[in-house]
Predict the structure.
Amino acid sequence: MAEQLTLGDDGAGGGAAAYLPRSRDLAHLRRAAEHCRGCDLWEPATQVVFGEGPRDARMVLVGEQPGDHEDLEGAPFVGPAGRVLDDALEAAGIDRSTVYVTNAVKHFRFEPRGKRRLHKTPSRTEVVACVPWLSAELTAVEPELLVLMGAVAAQALLGPRFSVTRQRGVVPDAPDGRTTVATVHPSSILRAPPELRDEQLAAFVDDLRLAARLLS
Ligand code: SF4
């Protein structure tokens, strides 16, 4: 069984928990997250990128963190990885407007390189610091099913030893007994060698189809 990080964990060094509002509906959470200083990622980032989607969504998709486009636009999955996700959702017969899409970490972690900002994977400390926001989103939305996309999202909720490569698919003993599917992050498909992209996209679509079947 995966080592689980309890939802609602306060995180390392206090983290985001100190910034959670008294009212935990999505609108209050979103506004409060703008002022979060639960780790150092807020400072170089343009803005917080909170989750988006219906508050009664049956499915929540969780990614890693906002990328360059998301940081500038303030919305999740609007860049190249978002386009892969949109195509995959459509191929799987899932209407994106019916799902809630968010990230494990709400600020963009990057390394400046000239005029470019290169993605950097958030540290475990940063992921744990940010978990209270994801926990609060899940409590507010109460989805029936979670899709965890990539190692950071999966390890945020299932513990640092969880391996998407080894444990891809339906996760037994998921937090709160919620049906949970672990899969890759759509950006991994963009980074794959060109000759492997179609195959990896097909496998990602298969995972989303599985999630849709589990809901139906
Ligand atoms: S990454 Fe998360 S914990 Fe860190 S400042 Fe942003 S919202 Fe707060």
